[in-house]
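so my prof wants the structure for this chain in the tokens format not the other one, which i didnt know existed until like an hour ago. anyway here's the sequence
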Amino acid sequence: MPEVSNPLTVLCLSSAVKGQRLIRELKAQGCRVFLLTEERWRGDDWPYDALEGVHYMHSLAHRRHVINAVAYIARGLKIDLIIPLDEYEVETAGLLREHFQMPGMTASQARPFCDKLAMRVRARAAGIPTPAFVPIFNYDALRDWMNTTPPPWLLKPRHEAGAMGIKRCENSEQVWRLLDQLGDEQSFRLLEEFVPSDVFHVDSIVWRGEVLFSAVGAYGQPPLAVSHGGGVFRSRLLPEHSDEARALRELNARVISTLGYPEFSGIVHAEFLRAHSDGRWLFLEAAARVGGAHLSDMIEFATGINLWVEWARIELATARGTPYQPPTPRRGFAGVIICLARQPLPDLSAYNDPEVVWRLEKKHHAGLIVASSDSERVRVLLEAYAARFAVDFLAHADPWETGRNV
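here's what i got, hopefully its the right format
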């Protein structure tokens, strides 16, 4: 049993409903867990039985407001640890740790994992290949870049998650018009070459700068194509000894070493491109948090390792000054498939192959996970299900963005 005579008090931050397994693990480890989230998620799927209390704000987007709110909470609650559950709170948690002089990753240390420009600048300086890019600062430099880099280009928010807020531009006139619309917000964007490619992800457990576990996956379609063009999202884990997995584990370790600091410990979700034109590997982006779209569930069904649980254990080991070692993974394969659905509650009963191990229960979404000891079986099932999902369920919604910049 964990030591509970002097339990740690943990405040979790999230502007999305996620991280339930992390909260439950903290509770199981003897912590007192509190949650700060947004009012729109009141009564949603939180593990209330594992929470000592929940605090609500209209929005967590304004960081000074969040600092004030946590300062108010801290008047009556001695907080030992702050953990962000969502991409947007990683840097906010760093600011809170700095403001309250608490242990953990600072905002400056978090920035290379949150700011797409910062991570590209660091990667380029370390010799890690990335798509060509230019910051939106100096107009002469921007003109020169557009004159020498063939379109299309992607105008990207520096601080949005994944593919959110990205605009594809076919010529310089489109770029200038979008910048006119952005006004003073344009410096929070970068312009990047569009590289036709396959997209991969590596999800890692890192302890004191060393990658202790990594799972390499391949997306069925680039997430940008799914979010902007509509389609069925899918991903599957690759065989550990495949050429792709070997190359990506090596590149991923270089990225984490470059973006992190010597004692960095946590979970990293990183994405990479393999260019169609010449097969070269390019670093796309990395985040110091668990990947979305139920990738952690897919990884757990294949390996037995839940990244949310391990994140909680890493945070507690760091706070308590105790060693950490992840569990030994089992060898298996899994894949996940998800799409927006026309139906409020899609009927997935016809998807009844024995490899189906999980079904998504979320309004206007269809999703499932398949698992097998045979990687090829997973690939074949996902391809077949993607075609069926497109007919049975698929709906399309315009991409949206949060409007957050910093």
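also thought this was worth mentioning. The longest strand covers residues 197-207.
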